[in-house]
Specification:
The complex is a heterodimer of chains A (about 180) and B (about 575). Chain A has about 180 residues and is α+β, with helices and mostly antiparallel strands. Chain A has 2 domains: about 80 residues, ACT domain (Alpha-Beta Plaits, 2-Layer Sandwich); about 70 residues, Alpha-Beta Plaits (2-Layer Sandwich), CATH 3.30.70. Chain A has 6 helices and 9 strands; from the N terminus they run E-H-E-E-H-E-E-H-E-E-H-E-E-H-H. In chain A, strands 5, 6, 7, 8 and 9 form a 5-stranded antiparallel sheet that branches. In chain A, strands 2-3-1-4 form a 4-stranded antiparallel sheet, covered by helices on one side. Helix content of chain B is about 35%, strand content about 15%.
Chain lengths: ~180, ~575
């Protein structure tokens, strides 16, 4: 579960060997905690976008961003506050499911916007892409049926379009 | 032009204006040592790779140019890890080239293989593993750019043997452009203006001057600012020499072993102007009790230093020199436009009187009348008095370092070569050698402890072989003195593993065996004549074994973690003999 010390940091980094190690190493040696981390190339093959959910007090966030920004391979970095960002996360979960409970579970999953992606006699595998909060809700509900395996990707995020246009906080946080 | 990768590397270093490499060859770096024979670059063969790193640091600190070191893979590379940490902590620009096993062998636990880029990731500004011979010239250009631009620091280039042996069509590097390496060098004008207002309205301002002032070559600009405003100055351990000790507005060094006046000036200030300083724990003591009455203006090139320890009221993000110049300009403008209330120098006579009173009442002190033992402070005072202006002083880490910082008179920038952030014992001898290589025109002394000397003394062989005439004053108290001092004060005089012996090794014989001229001093009356004899020698290294008072402790002292207000002024004060 997320707590109030969670902040989203979004970074464009050079797509080079060892960049993730530099980022992870910096977190380790400065004593910051990574809650989740998602990395993938962007449309520009030379760049990857890294979305990190950081577990720090607000007063330390600037220190995290400033230290990360000192890494030569970090091209651009900003904090995204949840209200100014579109966030998504993907969840896969295999749930125990007796034949009697099957339709009940399917109802819950579809009501929340998830999908059933694999089925056998005693289990269901569910996929859902949504906001982390809705995934929390789904996870809680599925818990009562018995989750066998679960994998969440950690969130990815982009700034909201209106927010981009104003880009006020962004320019403050985008340290030169 | 077709070259080998090794030739391209050396050519790239020449292109950067490198005049000297400190290094030691070995298997993986072997190909690069061949073109050194044909190069204009001087190579200094060290006796241990740690020496190469510290020499490069000493060279850099004395010249403000990047220091270059080259070593082989594996243990050669790990032996230079300590200097990289040291340079990282003290923001010294260093370019270290390490040999690496052939690219095809990386990851196979090959002979002398070591993941040195992984090991040094956290103690370099950046490092590179060159995997394509066509990238050599550009990577070297980037490495020098990163090491010397913004807040300086060390970088490392890992150079595989097959890359060194490959053929490459050498082309001079283009302009360096790194998307992720940009910085603000000019301070924000609105912040400068606000800072000037804050200064004009302060009653008890102090300039807290750190190493950034030296890095940005801002000593002259600082002098003008101080002359125009009359703001008193404290110079941190990294900034000794950035502002002349002979100027009465210099209150000395702040911090754990700072002068009473420097420490208390910060404690009682209503405005602290931090210039290229990072609020290190050795300066602040207990952070919540540091400069409790002061507003803070923080000028620094590194955004990550702003608010890391103490949140400033005004931030001057940019080069220190530019911030100082702009501040001076803004102050002059504001005071010359007819507002009678605002004038320069500042109307802070009361503050000056307070500081003058403290200086008189609580000067640095030791028993100057001692006739039976050699006081370490006496040695340093007499050494300092007998040096021409601009003499460079290196030191190791410990009591002798603190006394050197306290009692040596620094009037010239870049003449104090010491290990601050990392506190690396053994720094003095190699750092002094590097400084002398960079500044052959200046006398170079090192004040070293007996413990420190034993860590890196073998580099005196390098100094003798390469005819680098440095002078080493060992303050030999037969102990790891600073540890002994803490055991004395905080562990009820239970001395654990700190005794070294005054004559094992015999420092004079050892120094002579390494090609130096050596003297021993047992009594106070021998101090001055021996210093004068040493000053006369300039064709080979000199070592003086000063047998100093074992019991002497460094004061003033703020115990670790205590508020600076709890400063202990003297041994009598610390031991409760006087209040």
């Amino acid at each position: 579960m997320e707590n109030k010390n969670h902040h989203i940091v979004s970074a464009l980094v050079e797509n080079k060997a060892g960049v993730l190690a530099r980022i992870a190493g910096l977190f380790a040696r400065r004593g910051f905690n990574i809650y989740s981390l998602a990395v993938a190339p962007t449309d520009d093959a030379k760049l990857s976008r890294v979305t990190i959910v950081v577990d720090v007090e607000a007063s330390l966030l600037n220190q995290v961003v400033s230290q990360l920004n000192k890494l030569i391979n970090v091209v651009e970095i900003r904090e995204l506050s949840p209200s100014d960002a579109v966030e998504r996360e993907l969840l896969l979960a295999t749930v125990q499911c007796s034949p009697e409970k099957r339709s009940e579970i399917i109802q819950i999953v579809t009501a929340l916007g998830g999908e059933i992606v694999d089925v056998d006699i005693s289990c269901l595998t569910i996929e859902m892409s949504s906001t982390p909060e809705r995934l929390d809700t789904l996870e809680e509900l599925l818990n009562s049926y018995g989750i066998l395996r679960i994998q969440r990707t950690g969130r990815v995020a982009l700034p909201r379009l209106g927010y981009l246009a104003e880009s006020k906080i962004e320019s403050e946080l985008k340290l030169a | 032009m077709k070259l080998t990768g090794a030739q391209a590397l050396i050519k790239s270093l020449e292109h950067q204006g490198v005049e000297v490499i400190f290094g030691l060859p070995g298997g993986a770096i072997l190909p690069v040592y061949d073109p050194i024979l044909d190069s204009s670059i001087r190579h200094i063969l060290v006796r241990h790779e740690q020496g190469a790193g510290h020499m490069a640091e000493g060279y850099s600190m004395a010249t403000r140019r990047p220091g270059v070191a080259m070593v082989t893979s594996g243990p050669g590379a790990t032996n230079i890890v300590t200097p990289l940490l040291n340079a990282f902590m003290d923001s010294t620009p260093l370019v270290v080239v390490t040999g690496q096993v052939a690219t095809g062998s990386i990851g196979t636990d090959a002979f002398q293989e070591c993941d040195i880029t992984g090991i040094t990731m956290g103690i370099t500004k950046h490092n590179w593993l060159i995997k394509d011979p066509n990238e050599i010239a550009q990577t070297i250009a980037e490495a020098f750019h990163v090491a010397t631009t913004g807040r300086p620091g060390p970088v490392l280039i890992d150079f595989p043997k097959d890359i060194a042996n490959s053929k490459v069509d050498y082309q001079e590097p283009g302009a360096v452009s790194l998307a992720g390496f940009t910085m603000q060098t000019e301070p924000d004008p609105a912040a400068v203006s606000a800072a000037a207002d804050m200064i004009l309205n302060s009653k008890r301002p102090v300039l807290y001057v750190g190493g950034g002032v030296l890095k940005s070559n801002a000593s002259a600009a600082l002098k003008i600012l101080v002359e125009q405003t009359s703001i008193p100055v404290v110079t941190t351990l990294m900034a000794r020499g950035a502002f002349p000790d002979s100027n009465e507005l210099n209150l000395g060094m702040p911090g754990m072993h700072g002068t009473y006046t420097a420490v208390m000036a910060l404690q009682k200030a209503d405005l602290v102007i931090a210039m290229g300083a990072r609020f290190d724990d050795r300066v602040t003591g207990k952070i919540s009790a540091f400069a409790p009455l002061a507003k803070i203006i923080h000028a620094d090139i590194d955004p990550a230093e702003i608010g890391k320890v103490r949140r400033p009221d005004i931030t001057l993000l940019g080069e220190c020199r530019r911030s100082i110049e702009e501040l001076t300009r803004a102050l002059t403008e504001k005071t010359s436009n007819g507002n009678g209330d605002l004038k320069l120098p500042l109307d802070i006579d009361e503050w000056h009187n307070t500081l003058k009173g403290w200086k008189q009442k609580y000067p640095l002190s030791y028993d100057r009348e001692a006739t039976d033992v050699v006081k370490p402070q006496y040695v340093i005072e007499e050494l300092s008095k007998r040096q021409e202006e601009g003499t460079i002083l290196a030191s190791g880490v410990g009591q002798h370092q603190m006394w050197a910082s306290q009692y040596w008179k620094f009037d010239t920038p870049n003449t104090w070569i010491n290990s601050g952030g990392a506190g690396t014992m053994g720094f003095a001898v190699p750092a002094a050698i590097g400084a002398k290589v960079g500044r052959p025109d200046k006398p170079v002394w090192a004040i070293d402890g007996d413990g420190c000397f034993q860590m890196t003394a073998q580099e005196l062989v390098t100094a003798s072989a390469e005819q680098i005439p440095v002078k080493i004053a060992i303050l030999n108290n037969a102990y790891l003195g600073m540890v002994r001092q803490w055991q004395h004060m905080f562990y009820e005089e239970r001395y654990s593993e700190v005794y070294l012996s005054p004559d094992l090794p015999d420092y004079v014989k050892w120094a002579e065996a390494m090609g130096a001229i050596a003297f021993r001093v047992d009594t106070p009356e021998e101090v001055i004549p021996t210093i004068e004899k040493a000053n006369e020698i300039d064709d080979r290294p000199v070592v003086i074994d000063f047998r100093t008072d074992v019991t002497e402790r460094v004061f003033p002292m703020v115990p670790a973690g205590a508020p600076n207000d709890d400063i202990l002024i003297s041994a009598e004060h610390a031991d409760g003999i006087v209040q």
